[in-house]
Amino acid sequence: MEEYFVKAYSQAGGQAEATVKQSQIEFDATAEGGDVLPNPAELLLSAFAACVLKNVERYSIRLHLPYRKAKIDVKGYRTDVPPVIVKVEYTLEIDTDVEEKKLNLWHRNIIKFGTITNTLMRAAEVKGTIKRMNKTDE
């Protein structure tokens, strides 16, 4: 079984930071929420985005599907009572020349074999699309 370790702290007033390996990630732990640092829900959605992009790379190598770059937009929906992320929607864009059939196979593998994608799919509705990156996005 693989294990992960994060150390985090906060101070009165909501200044917070997590240490992961040799990186520090500042986040908003204020009661009212701020406009600068990510809040915990945004960190969760960032982890989802990171998982998808990591699997773009992983399955590019495993399935021999070359790409130049990838980007993802993620949106989460939360209920207030109880406070739960109930839906995650995303659009994954990849700058690649692979045919449509292989692009769809790539997408299935990206989602099916991701740690964070699988975890979130057990708790919330996850819907998304994959498409070729527009030349204007380059």
How would you sum up this structure, described in words?
- The protein is α+β, with helices and mostly antiparallel strands.
- It folds into two domains: 37 residues, no CATH class; 98 residues, 2-Layer Sandwich (GMP Synthetase, Chain A, domain 3).
- It is built from three helices and six strands.
- The strands form two sheets. The protein has a three-stranded antiparallel β-sheet, with no helix packed on it. Strands 4-5-6 form a three-stranded mixed β-sheet, with helices on one face.
- Strand 1 and strand 2 form a beta hairpin.
- The protein is globular and about 55 Å long.
- The chain starts with 6 loop residues before the first strand and ends in a 6-residue tail after the last strand.
- The mean pLDDT is 94.
Number of strands: 6
Can you tell me the residue ranges where pLDDT is under 50 for at least 5 consecutive residues? none
Query: In the CATH hierarchy, what is the superfamily of the largest domain?
Result: K homology (KH) domain
Count of alpha/pi helices: 3
Give Rg in angstroms: 17 Å
* SSE ordering: EEEHEEHHE
Largest sheet strand order? 1-2-3
CATH fold name of the largest domain, please?
GMP Synthetase, Chain A, domain 3
Q: Which CATH-level-2 architecture of the largest domain?
A: 2-Layer Sandwich
Indicate the mean pLDDT.
94
Shape: globular
Q: What is the domain total for the residues?
A: 2
